[in-house]
Sequence to fold (321 residues):
Amino acid sequence: MAAEYIGRCQEEKLRKMPVDLVKDAFGCDIIILREPNGASAVVHLHGGQVTSWKNAQGDELLFLSSKATHKPSKRMRGGIPICFPHVRNLGSLEQQSLVRCHNWTIDPNPPPPPTNGIKAYLDLLSRPTAADMNIWAHNFELRLRVSLGMANLTLTTRVKNIEKVKALSFNFAICTYISVSDISEVRIEGLETTDYLDNLKCKERFTEQGNAITFDGELDRVYLGTPTKIAIIDHEKKRTFELRKDGLPDAVVWNPWDKKSKTIADLGDDDYMRMLCIESAAVEKSIVLKPGQEWKGRQEITAVLSSYCSGQFDRHVASDG
Fold:
């Protein structure tokens, strides 16, 4: 009865907002956010994962694999998954994907509404299950707000340590799969002169030398202490994604290219051409919370039909939040 009452309260809350709670074609619970100008976003309750973001013209801005698994119990490749408590290359797969296997709920005690006039937003909550505690024995609350604007999508995350005695140490990433026309026509600006760990060379440390990052083969790097603003420029579509982040000092840039794609079961052989994975992350240094403390991280993506040059990006480094 309690679960049914909570469910009714959640549905009643959604009815008062430009948000729809429905099931997709595969029977999964999804929430659709709609902006008056026609933009929309889709969030799967399983995994708390954004799986679609469309602009006012109906163009899909996020990549979803052609072999994505549309099952409530499986992880879905693409969109914007949340990686907590460990990100890729840190810890076991179960640890990396802990909250991606959760059925998130609508937050019953969300933060105050956005103050910038945005009305299409959603607050979700994830807590560890008994099975989770066997994998990673820490008690936490993870809150996620997804906010949809006219040309931007914002994810705000909050992690609270609800342990009474021990500290909570974790890494975190907002893993964004951007849809691009042709990866060989894409460039990333804003990371020049930044140090990075090359995962293709045993995490050896280098400094980015070019004016921009371009793609002509597999790339898997962790950029350290990055600026708060990064631009992804798709020359063929004449579209720029401006990524702004706070509390997430690092950035992971990944594209598997052709050979690696063929080894990934839930990725189509040619999907690499249409995707760029960029993660706003805290990778190099773990976030440590004392009992009762809370951490906040934020990522905002804006899509515009224009191009940027490197000189327009400042070198302000993201704060620790």
Summary: The helical segments are 2-15, 93-96, 130-135, 257-261. The chain has four helices and 20 strands.
